[in-house]
Write a structure and sequence with these properties.
Length: about 425
């Protein structure tokens, strides 16, 4: 469920008509619904009720400070994968003991940053990382709490570019080696083992891979405790999918996911950590764009938009599907027509959809990309010297720009011409 609905023939974000935002900030822009973000966080809280747990929002999905502030006020922890994300979490008031640091390539500076500022745990992904973290922590006279991310060799049945739990993926330590690596960790200075971590991929639409992976983690937990390790936390990662398509696709509900958690690891007496990102932010956001031209081609027609692949790269990168709808509701009986929906960037890959059925629209019409709240703005670039587009937050009948569009002067000022070229 989201809060983007037609009212009196106009698509609204909560109680704000999208054309009002377009008039105020220009197009294209991202718009997020506070009510949807809060609702999606709460459904995970309900799913894990009865278990000691912490929901650490995966910031890589959408790291706008306003989005983070909403979730922090609800009690969320944060899952970060860089020093920059760590600083964003701290900037909105998330305490260090509610921040989990994930990622396969943590640098010494990032390790020091988190140790100095406070950290719940590092999710360690390799033996070299473990040795480096030990050296950094010991050199500071600090203790680094860790889980070790195990790779269970489970097929998440998702897109190859967002699968993380197969043996050929770069993530984690093979589960068969886990006991030896935990023994190594326990003997290192500056390291405190606190739990086990697993994450098998993103946009999962089947619960069976979760069940399989979580059962493996439960078995490993018993073995590690028998080896003398104090496994007090089980980090299960995230990855639950959302419906991107107007089809019969129906990813599992958080309540169904929660039942799997209860059944597989609920009896371990450990605090459960999960790291949802897409499911919290994805359907809480739209990308709104304007039609620049309706172009008649040979054998196909094109809608050329003012949004481009640099604004929303998922279709170009993952062949991802986003529902695309007119902001002004079409009249009853209007038949959709096939269009290639494209952006203005000089790349054939700047294509959002091919032969997509959509009600006919004219120049200057507004259209909206659904499910654009996750991996949209955070993956945007200034390719073709196109400014990053505004992000807008709606709360009821009010809205505010939470990231402004930079001016061209601001963009140019970041470059420096060396004196010897003057």
């Amino acid at each position: 469920m989201d809060h983007f609905l037609y009212r009196d023939g106009v698509l609204q974000a909560e109680d704000v008509p999208l054309p009002d935002i377009a008039t105020a900030v220009g197009t294209p822009f991202y718009v997020y619904s506070k009510a949807t973000l809060a609702r999606h966080y709460r459904v995970f809280e309900e799913a894990l009720s009865g278990l000691p747990h912490l929901i650490c929002y995966a910031m890589k999905a959408n790291s706008n400070l306003a989005v983070l502030k909403i979730l922090a006020r609800l009690g969320a922890g944060m899952d970060v994968v860089s020093g920059g994300e760590y600083l964003r979490a701290r900037a909105v008031g998330v305490p260090g003991d509610k921040i989990v640091f994930s990622g396969v390539g943590k640098t010494p500076d990032e390790m020091r940053l988190a140790l100095e500022g406070g950290i719940r745990q590092f999710n360690v992904e390799s033996e070299p990382e473990l040795l480096l973290l030990s050296a950094v922590a010991a050199g500071m006279g600090a203790i680094a709490p860790i889980t070790i991310r195990v790779n269970p060799d489970v097929d998440a049945k998702t897109h190859a570019k967002i699968a993380t739990g197969k043996s050929e993926n770069k993530f984690g330590i093979p589960i068969a080696k886990a006991r030896a690596v935990y023994a190594q960790a326990a003997a290192l200075p500056g390291i405190q083992v606190v739990g086990v971590d697993v994450h098998i991929g993103s946009q999962l639409t089947d619960l069976d891979p979760y069940r399989h992976a979580f059962q493996k983690v439960a078995e490993l937990t018993h073995a590690l405790r028998a080896d003398g390790h104090d496994i007090r936390r089980i980090d299960l990662g995230g990855g639950l999918g959302i419906p991107y398509m107007a089809t019969n696709e129906a990813p599992p509900l958080p309540s169904d996911y929660g039942r799997i958690v209860h059944e597989t690891v609920g009896d371990l007496g450990a605090e459960i950590e999960i790291e949802p990102g897409r499911l919290i932010a994805g359907n809480a956001g739209l990308l709104v764009s304007k039609v620049l031209f309706v172009k008649e081609g040979e054998g196909r027609d094109f809608l050329i938009l003012d949004a481009a692949m640099n604004d929303l790269i998922r279709p170009a990168m993952y062949e991802a599907h986003h529902d695309i709808i007119p902001v002004i509701e079409p009249a009853l009986g209007v038949e959709p027509q096939p269009f290639d929906i494209v952006g203005p960037v000089c790349e054939s890959g700047d294509t959002f959809a091919k032969q997509r059925l959509i009600p006919p629209v004219s120049m200057d019409a507004l259209i909206a990309f659904r499910s654009a709240g996750a991996y949209g703005a955070v993956m945007a670039s200034e390719y073709n010297s196109r400014p990053l587009i505004p992000e807008v937050l709606v709360d009821g009948d009010q809205f505010a720009v939470v990231r402004a569009r930079p001016t061209f002067d601001e963009m140019l000022s970041r470059d420096t011409i060396p004196g010897w070229l003057e």
